[in-house]
Amino acid sequence: MQIATTLVTPPSRLRTAAFIAIGVCLAALLAALALVLAGIAADAARPFSPRVADGLIPEGASVPATEEHLPALARLDADLRQALRDAAEAAAAEGVTLDVTSGWRSAAFQQWLLDNAVETYGNAEVARQFVATPDESRHVTGQSVDIGSLDAQVWLRTHGTTWGLCQVYANEPWHFERAASPGGACPEMLADASATRG
Ligand SMILES: [Zn+2]
Questions:
Q1: How far does the centroid of ligand 1 lie from the alpha carbon of residue 166, in Å?
Q2: Could you tell me the pTM of the whole model?
Q3: Residue 164: which region, alpha, beta or left (left: phi > 0; alpha: psi -120 to 50)?
Q4: How many domains, in total, are found in the chain?
Q5: DSSP summary character for residue 197
Q6: For an engineered disulfide with 106, which of 16, 54, 60, 93 has Cβ 3.0 to 4.6 Å away?
Q7: What's 163's domain CATH number?
């Protein structure tokens, strides 16, 4: 009996221990919450920079037009994707690789490009001749691709109409859209990206 009584902790001490435990848990929870909130605030303060999920293909890099996994290509309009795939196959048979430097882009990515262009040219009007707004860009709708190498650009300008692929801006020899029906004639080129479409 002697042993049993010494082993039993008095109820008041149990209560104290429970309060301490609850206090420690609460403090840990609050600390974790503070860390999460600080992280969210830091994310909001960080300026936007495009990620692969926004359609980014890292600068200087290009991917074969047959690549299917990157969002830049996977999120292209289905007809353009198929036309590009078929054109890439025909080009490959002639020893030319159709390499894509940009395809689908998120609206945030397009806005970021436009902001950068305004900064570069120091003038919104000039910037618009090279970069369309997110509302107008055919990259945001997945309806255009930019081709990297000069060889591939020349090949596509020469043969692209077979799949309805056309250069649409006179000042952008790399930018192609499915602007004609397969085998049809491409529409007359627009001067630049700021021109209104007919
Ligand atoms: Zn383009």
A1: 12
A2: 0.75
A3: left
A4: 2
A5: P
A6: 54
A7: 3.30.1380.10
